UniProtKB/TrEMBL annotation:
Any one GO biological process: protein transport
Pfam families: Mss4
Superkingdom of the source species: Eukaryota
Gene Ontology terms, MF aspect: guanyl-nucleotide exchange factor activity; zinc ion binding
Name recorded for this polypeptide: Mss4-like protein
UniProtKB keywords: Guanine-nucleotide releasing factor, Protein transport, Transport
GO cellular component: cytosol; membrane
Species: Litomosoides sigmodontis (Filarial nematode worm)
């Protein structure tokens, strides 16, 4: 019998090749001045750093820094393998669930987290329990 973790990993990873299998599982410092326009919107597409699928197209989400800090688990496929946590407070924010091109959801340690909808890599962010506000960790994404 498969564990819940194995079921989730199989669900997310079936037929989805990773373009960057060795991507880092932790936050990566970035210069966001090149990624944010004058209205604090994303200038570029925001994508999964593991499979490169698009999570948001340009000008879909708002950049927030220093708000709503959260401890997120180290990233993995299925979101449950991370052994350490990282404090994250640099976000791409939206209250529009339809702004996402692709996204997955999972509950990890009583937090509703966001995962890559194609390969299941994450957590890349979190959502409120009423599903009305969504935060993507800006230092956990790629930009194209």
């Amino acid at each position: 019998m498969m564990t819940m973790k194995e079921v989730v990993q199989n669900l997310f990873t079936e037929n989805v090749p990773a373009k960057n299998e060795r991507c880092d599982s932790k936050n990566e410092k970035q210069d966001f001045s090149e990624l944010v326009d004058e209205q604090q919107r994303n200038k570029k597409k925001i994508s999964c750093r593991r499979c490169q699928c698009v999570v948001f197209h340009a000008k879909q989400v708002t950049f927030l820094q220093g708000k709503d800090p959260k401890e997120l688990k180290e990233m993995s496929v299925g979101g449950m393998d991370g052994k350490e946590t990282e404090k994250t407070d640099i976000w791409w924010f939206t209250a529009n669930e339809y702004a996402f091109d692709t996204i997955g959801f999972l509950t990890v340690d009583d937090l509703d987290v966001l995962m890559c909808g194609d390969c299941g890599f994450g957590p890349i962010g979190w959502r409120t329990s009423d599903n009305k506000n969504f935060w993507i960790a800006a230092e956990r994404m790629s930009y194209v």
